[in-house]
Every structure is written in structure tokens, then in C-alpha cells.
Design brief:
Layout lengths: L2 H17 L3 H10 L7 H12 L16 E8 L4 H10 L8 E7 L6 E8 L6 E4 L8 E2 L7 H14 L4 H8 L11 E5 L11 E8 L8 E9 L9 E7 L2 E3 L2 H9 L44 E4 L2 E4 L2 E8 L3 E9 L2 E16 L4 H5 L1 E3 L23 E9 L5 E13 L5 E6 L5 E7 L2 E11 L2 E10 L4 E9 L3 E3 L8 E5 L2 E4 L1 E11 L7 E13 L7 E12 L6 E3 L7 E10 L5 E9 L21 E7 L24 H5 L9 E11 L15 E9 L13 E6 L7 E5 L24
Antiparallel strand pairs: 1-2, 1-17, 2-3, 3-4, 3-5, 6-7, 7-8, 8-9, 9-10, 11-12, 12-13, 13-14, 14-15, 15-16, 15-27, 17-18, 18-21, 19-20, 20-36, 21-22, 22-23, 23-35, 24-26, 25-26, 27-34, 28-29, 28-31, 30-33, 31-32, 32-35, 33-34, 36-37
Bound molecules: 2-acetamido-2-deoxy-beta-D-glucopyranose (6 copies) and copper (II) ion.
């Protein structure tokens, strides 16, 4: 076949493929592409273009340390106004651009600069991102890179050479000259006590499977601020509860027996930190558990980053910093939200060791949106799910493809969406009716070093959206000393599971049937009235207390303050059939509390965590509540959420954004070994329609079954359903049947 014929065939094939999608779906796909992440080709062309700019003097980031290099790139999200003009008014499609983070190390005054590069796919311009802050991003606030770790590994080995015999005597493991019994380290953050510092506590651990759970009782404070690693130094060492200013001091006192020594038992063969099954199996046969199956194929559609399911449609992308973002969420072609997205996840710890008390993880600073490794079919998501690859450009010199990193699937919840059994109270019934409850799930995961987050967005057939995060993986543990018991539980002979609070911040840019919305709360108030049918008595009952909230300050609910039970986003200009303003409600499933007193050092970097809910006016300059630079500089953060509400703008009939913080306190216990498990460790919130529709929109669901007896003696029934009666072996090879009589034998 010649090339021309082949091309024609290819074109024909693509036409045929598109043809079986409806016209509106392919339009939806085209619209959703304004949100789609950079393709591998786009990333490569941005890199090539920037590497060619001589004045930037860029080198590959994976082969140099402390030079000028591209650290990260992602889609530069177009402004909401121009996207809406494109989506709703047939306006022009916004130009595609990349946002690129460059580390300038090779300058007298090193800095980090963000650039906009465009237009894609063939860029010819780049310009620095201008921010109101007008302060350059501090070089010390940059995330860690592979090269920096490599240098730390190398220098740590040098610095601890004289310590080697102590490490060996203590643990049977070492850094230097080790073959199988080697040490590893976990670096914690933030890296210092003040803005501009870069000195990290390193926890030494045995390098065995699940090394997170094998601290040996030695922690080292390494100053690695200089771009010349020869200038790095160990500033402190913690050994079995005692502090030393240098390796020399520790070695000296160790030899003179002027300190309390430890010798760990050898537990390196003990499988406690592994997944290996142990103990007696509780199920005696090796049969599989139940599985999800789709007997007649999929009922949802994924076209690029565009998804359709029952009445729902939306687009998604995955940011390298914080991960999943869902855009343009519509139900029956009516918009409910412009954006619902993860902003930040933190875990703030306590402990008796220096690393334990210093650990305040702010996970977007660890590339939380890039550490989405392959999902296991049948375990992480159902086998039948639709799996999508994700591409990242983060601490790399070429785009990396993460296979099957996102999954989309429909699953039964196991609880009916609605049901009723209409009893006649004499052994029979007038009807039974129920609606199966299936839900569409979009899922990614982040393995941030020891921890795994599972990120879910669920779309129910009754107009409800659920946003959920489940936490699993390994706990962050430190060496057990008796005073550690104030900060957690002993989970192995030398291991303390340190208490910590997980908080997750979400951005919820609701557009309830349009961008002009208001926020109000509803709670209850007692009233005491004269009983109208017995005037000598009083009636005490609750009445609705509806409070319109008019300003950003008033709409910021601090942890610990009273939060009304109904948090309502209303469109004051649109009403449902019954005359009520169309609304959606945010409902929490969370046990969160603040982690530090207001304005205390690192708390400035996470000022969003002051509020379980804050509602602000939409602003392009307030795109995210956090950034990848806060982990290494929470003291002078480049994004300060408190400023979003400081100007206390009017929020009546405006484009509103809700910032939702959920979380839980985690006091690790014996059952966190080997891994934290998900049941009970999931938090989130729901977006629920409240007078948005005229009735439950799931009335249009095919998953309904109605049974009516057709004679007085219940010998025959009439079954109504809108899916086939028999669907083969997948669920059952018998048709659905129902009896419904009840009697005593
Ligand atoms: C950072 O350094 C580069 C190279 O010297 C310079 O072009 C740029 O303007 C600096 N950025 C900021 C924000 O100061
Ligand atoms: C390295 O380890 C080997 C085997 O354990 C030992 O024979 C050798 O002396 C060690 N070398 C140094 C420099 O410690
Ligand atoms: C209701 O009001 C009456 C008359 O003022 C009073 O006697 C009664 O204690 C009130 N009841 C409550 C529960 O406040
Ligand atoms: C219903 O049952 C009663 C008593 O068992 C019987 O007399 C009657 O004929 C039955 N009716 C029908 C329609 O089967
Ligand atoms: C339901 O069970 C009753 C009692 O066993 C029986 O008489 C009746 O015929 C059954 N109806 C159907 C529809 O199976
Ligand atoms: C739990 O621990 C084992 C280590 O043995 C590890 O392989 C596995 O990935 C961990 N599981 C999770 C879900 O983190
Ligand atoms: Cu935890």
C-alpha cells in the first residue's frame, strides 16, 4: 500500500470512529479540551523552545545541581471569562499556553521564576508571570530534586564515615561500605525555622521493605542551603534522646561512654513492615470475592478529558502540584460548578525526637499531583474501569508517562438510591419500587513518599457530587523513646507512630445555573408561641433561621466556631417550579480541626486551614490557596490565603468560590502496621441539589424496578423495568423475581 492510500485509510478510520459518538459528545470533547493537560508533544516543544533561548542558559535538570534548569511545566489555565465566552457564547477558543517553573541557580542572586510560554503547539514567546506580590520566589523555597537527593546521599556518606562503627553497633546496618545491610534516610520538612533556610532533619532507617517503619534512633540535621555541596554541614545529631553538635562530639562521647547507648535487636527478618499475609486465613477456600461487572457494556463515555454519564458532563485535568481538577460540571446541560479541585493536603506531626516535632508536611511541595503511579486493576479500581495515562513534566528532562494513573468507572453502591415497600398491613402490599444506586467515580492516587492518598470524585444519578479522599500507605514513624507516648503509640519495639492531623483543602467554584450566586446559611431557632388550639399552653418548636451572608469575612468559618448546618449557594435570579431559588448545598463528612495557633510560624503558610469554609469572590489572581513553594518556606509563603478574604469583598449575587477544608486526626495505633487502612480514614464533602431541580432528577433513571401484585391473592405480579430482565451470568443467570408476601409459617 502506498503512503497516500494508507493516509486515506487512516482518515477514513478516524471518521468511522468519531461517527458513532453523538454530535453533542464530540462538541463536548472539543469544549473540554480548553482544560486538557499538556500533551507530551507540547511539553517537548516548550522545552526545545526554552532550551534554545540563550539568555536563559538552561541545562538538563537531571545532570546538574545548582544551575539554571526547567523544573516543571503544566497547562496555563486560561482565564475563566474567556473560557466561558468560548463555552457559552461561541467565542474564540483561548490560546493554549504552558506555565513553566525555572530554577535560576547559576546567578549571583539565585531565584525561581515562573514563565508563560506560548502559543502551543509552536511557541514563540515567553514572559515571566507577574504577581501582585512583586517579590521573587525565594530560591530556598524550591522543591527538592533528584540531583539534590543524590548529592545529599553522597555527602551524608562522607560526613558519617567516622560514625560508621556506631551505626553498625547500634543497628547492625551502616551507610558506608554496606552491601545488604544498608541504611537509608527520610528527610522531613519544613527545612529550618526561618525563611531563607534549607536545613533538613534526616531520620536514619534500615533499608528493608517498609523502611519507613525502621528508624534506628539516629537523626541528623543537615544544612544544604549552599549550591556548593562542599559547604554543606551537619549542624546537629540526635542519638537515642541526646543532642550533639557534631559527629566528632558524638564519637568522642560514645568512646568515653559519656552517653546512653542503644543496641537494637535485629528485626530485619521480621515481616511486620511488609504486606505478606500472615496468621491463619479466615476464609478457608481460595475463591474470589465479589467483583464489579458491566454485563452489557459501559453506560458512560470518556472522550479525551471529557466525560458523560447519565445527565452529567464534565472535563478533568491533573495538575502536577495538587492533582485532580474537575471543570465545567453540568447536569442536563445546566452548569453547577466551573471547577472543583484539590488544592493542598497537609499532615502536621508531633513527637519527642527532633524530626518528629519538626515534621509539617505540605504535600503539593512534594509534587503530589505527579506521584500517581499505576493503578492495579481489580484492587485500586474495578477491572472494568476505563484507565487513562497521565503525563508529567516535573524534575525531569523529558515528559514522563504514568500508565493507567487515572480511572473512571461506574459502580453499584450497594444501597438503593430510593425504595419503598407499600404494605397493606395484612400480609400483602400494593407495590414495591426501588432504584438501583450506581455512581460514576473518577479516581487518581498520590503516593507522597510513605503515604498514599486516594482521590475520588463521585457523580450520583440524583444530582449529588461527592468529593472524597481516603488515606493509606505507611505511617511516618520515629524512634520510640518513653516520652514519645505523649505523641502517639508504640507500634513495634523501637517504633513510635506519631500523632498528626491530615487536612485537605478543596476549591469549589460553584456556578449554580450561572456565575451570579449568593451564599446563605440555614439553621434552626426555637420559637415559643401560644398554642393556637389550646391558648393556655405554649408550643415550643424550631423554625428555619435563614441568614444571607454578604461579605467574605462573614463567610469565613473558623475551626471551633459554630457552623450552621445548611451551607447554601443560591442563584437569586433563577427559581425552580415551586418558586424557590435554585441552590446547591455543601455538606461535610469530616472531623477536622486546626493544627497550629493562628500566625504561629509555619501556620502562615497554611492560612486556609483556619477555616472549615471560606467563601470568596472569584478572582484570577486567587487561583490556588497554596503552592509548591510553601513546603520549604511556610514562614513567608508566596500564596497567603488570608489575603483572599482580607479585602472583605461583597459576595451578594457575585461569582463565588468556596474553599473547603476537611480532615481528621490520626493517632497511629498497632493496626496501622504494616499499612494504614482506608476504612474510617476517608473524609470529604458532598454537593447536594437543594431546590435546584423541580424533583429528584433520578426519576429519569433506567435503574428503576416496580412490582405490583395483579390479583388480590398475590399469585401474580407485574414487574416493570427499563433494563433487560435477563443479563446472563455476570450478575445472575436467573431473571429477577420478587414475591413480597409475608406470613408466619
Ligand atoms: C530571576 O533571575 C533571572 C535570571 O537572572 C532574571 O531574569 C529574573 O528577572 C529573576 N526573576 C525575578 C522574579 O527576580
Ligand atoms: C568493607 O566491608 C568488608 C566486608 O564487610 C570488609 O572486609 C572491609 O574491611 C570493609 N572496608 C572498609 C574500608 O571498612
Ligand atoms: C415559653 O414562654 C412562656 C411565657 O413566656 C414561658 O413561661 C415558658 O417558660 C417558655 N418556654 C420555653 C421553653 O422557653
Ligand atoms: C383467593 O383466595 C380465596 C381463599 O383462599 C379464594 O376463596 C378465592 O377464590 C381466591 N381468589 C382468586 C381470584 O384466586
Ligand atoms: C408468593 O409466595 C406465596 C406463598 O408462598 C405464593 O402463594 C405466591 O404464589 C407467590 N407469588 C409469586 C408471584 O411468586
Ligand atoms: C504497605 O506495605 C508494603 C510493604 O511491605 C508495601 O509494599 C505496600 O505498597 C504498602 N501498601 C500501601 C497501600 O501503601
Ligand atoms: Cu495519617
Amino acid at each position: 500500500m502506498d503512503l497516500k492510500a494508507l493516509l486515506q485509510l487512516l482518515i477514513l478510520m478516524s471518521v468511522v470512529r468519531v461517527a458513532h459518538f453523538s454530535k453533542s459528545s464530540s462538541k463536548g470533547r472539543y469544549m473540554a479540551s480548553v482544560f486538557s493537560d499538556l500533551t507530551s508533544e507540547e511539553m517537548t516543544s516548550v522545552r526545545t523552545f526554552l532550551m534554545d533561548q540563550e539568555q536563559l542558559n538552561l541545562v538538563p535538570i537531571r545532570s546538574h545541581f545548582g544551575k539554571n534548569a526547567i523544573f516543571m511545566m503544566e497547562l496555563n489555565l486560561p482565564k475563566k471569562r474567556s473560557v466561558l465566552n468560548f463555552l457559552d457564547n461561541n467565542g474564540p477558543k483561548p490560546q493554549r499556553e504552558a506555565k513553566v517553573v525555572i530554577f535560576f541557580g547559576d546567578r549571583a542572586q539565585p531565584n525561581v521564576t515562573e514563565y508563560i510560554v506560548g502559543p502551543l503547539p509552536h511557541p514563540y514567546y515567553y514572559r515571566p508571570v507577574t504577581s501582585k506580590r512583586n517579590k521573587p520566589i525565594r530560591f530556598e523555597s524550591r522543591p527538592m530534586t533528584y540531583m539534590e537527593y543524590e548529592k545529599i546521599q553522597k555527602h551524608l556518606m562522607e560526613f558519617t564515615k567516622e560514625l560508621n562503627h556506631i551505626l553498625l553497633e547500634t543497628s547492625g546496618f551502616s551507610f558506608y561500605n554496606c552491601s545488604s545491610r544498608c541504611l537509608s534516610f527520610t528527610d522531613i520538612a519544613p527545612r529550618g525555622l526561618n525563611s531563607g533556610e534549607r536545613r533538613s532533619w534526616l531520620i536514619l532507617q534500615k533499608y528493608v521493605e517498609g523502611f519507613f517503619l525502621h528508624p534506628i534512633g539516629v537523626e541528623i540535621l543537615l544544612n544544604h542551603r549552599s549550591l556548593n555541596p562542599k559547604e554543606w554541614m551537619i549542624e546537629k545529631i540526635w542519638y537515642n534522646g541526646q543532642y550533639f553538635d557534631s559527629v566528632k562530639e558524638l564519637v568522642h562521647k560514645y568512646e568515653k561512654n559519656e552517653l546512653s547507648k542503644i543496641q537494637l535487636s535485629d528485626d530485619s527478618q521480621d515481616p511486620y513492615s511488609t504486606f505478606m499475609p500472615r496468621g491463619e486465613f479466615k476464609i478457608k477456600t481460595d475463591i474470589h470475592g465479589p467483583k464489579i461487572c458491566e454485563p452489557q457494556g459501559k453506560r458512560y463515555r470518556v472522550l479525551g478529558n471529557y466525560v458523560e454519564y447519565t445527565g452529567w458532563s464534565f472535563a478533568y485535568r491533573v495538575r502536577p502540584s495538587a492533582g485532580l481538577q474537575i471543570f465545567d460540571i453540568q447536569y442536563n446541560n445546566e452548569r453547577i460548578a466551573y471547577e472543583v479541585s484539590i488544592q493542598e493536603a497537609i499532615a502536621f506531626y508531633s513527637g519527642s525526637t527532633p524530626a518528629g516535632m519538626q515534621t509539617k508536611y505540605i504535600d503539593s511541595g512534594w509534587g503530589m499531583g505527579t506521584v500517581h503511579y499505576e493503578l492495579a486493576k481489580g484492587i485500586d479500581c474495578p477491572e472494568e474501569a476505563t484507565y487513562q495515562d497521565l503525563y508529567n513534566y516535573y524534575d525531569t528532562d523529558k515528559p514522563l508517562r504514568y500508565k493507567n494513573a487515572l480511572c473512571i468507572f461506574e459502580q453499584p453502591t450497594g444501597v438503593p438510591l430510593r425504595r419503598h415497600f407499600d404494605s397493606t398491613y395484612n400480609g400483602g402490599y400494593s407495590f414495591y419500587a426501588g432504584v438501583e444506586n450506581q455512581v460514576l467515580v473518577v479516581r487518581t492516587t498520590s503516593t507522597v513518599y510513605n503515604y498514599d492518598y486516594i482521590w475520588d470524585f463521585l457523580f450520583y444519578q440524583n444530582g449529588v457530587i461527592e468529593v472524597k479522599v481516603s488515606a493509606t500507605g505507611y505511617i511516618h514513624a520515629t524512634f520510640f523513646t518513653p516520652d514519645g507516648l505523649q505523641f502517639g503509640n508504640r507500634v513495634q519495639s523501637d517504633v513510635l507512630g506519631n500523632l498528626h492531623t491530615h487536612l485537605i483543602n478543596y476549591k469549589v467554584d460553584l456556578d449554580i445555573a450561572g456565575t451570579e450566586n449568593s451564599f446563605e446559611t440555614i439553621d434552626l431557632k426555637y420559637e415559643n408561641i401560644t398554642n393556637p388550639w389550646s391558648p393556655d399552653h405554649f408550643i415550643v418548636q424550631s423554625r428555619m433561621d435563614r441568614v444571607p451572608i454578604s461579605s467574605e469575612r462573614q463567610a469565613a468559618f473558623r475551626f471551633g466556631s459554630h457552623v450552621p448546618r445548611y451551607l447554601m449557594f443560591v442563584n437569586p435570579n433563577k427559581k425552580n417550579k415551586w418558586g424557590h431559588q435554585k441552590s446547591y448545598r455543601i455538606q461535610y463528612n469530616s472531623h477536622a480541626h486546626s493544627v497550629l495557633p493562628r500566625m504561629w510560624a509555619e501556620e502562615k503558610g497554611i492560612s486556609w486551614s483556619r477555616y472549615s469554609l471560606a467563601v470568596t469572590r472569584h478572582r484570577e489572581s486567587e487561583q490556588s490557596s497554596s503552592s509548591i513553594f510553601i513546603q520549604c518556606d511556610p514562614w513567608d509563603p508566596n500564596v497567603y490565603f488570608e489575603n483572599f478574604i482580607r479585602n472583605n469583598q461583597d459576595i451578594v449575587n457575585k461569582d463565588l468560590v468556596a474553599w473547603v477544608t476537611v480532615g481528621f486526626l490520626h493517632i497511629p495505633h498497632a493496626e496501622d502496621i504494616p499499612n494504614t487502612s482506608t476504612p474510617g480514614n476517608a473524609v470529604g464533602f458532598l454537593l447536594r441539589p437543594f431546590n435546584f431541580f423541580d424533583e429528584d432528577p433520578s426519576v429519569a433513571s433506567r435503574d428503576t424496578v416496580i412490582v405490583r401484585p395483579t390479583d388480590k391473592n398475590f399469585t401474580k405480579v407485574n414487574i416493570q423495568r427499563w433494563t433487560p430482565e435477563v443479563i446472563g451470568q455476570c450478575v445472575s443467570n436467573k431473571p429477577f423475581s420478587y414475591n413480597g408476601t409475608y406470613f408466619s409459617d
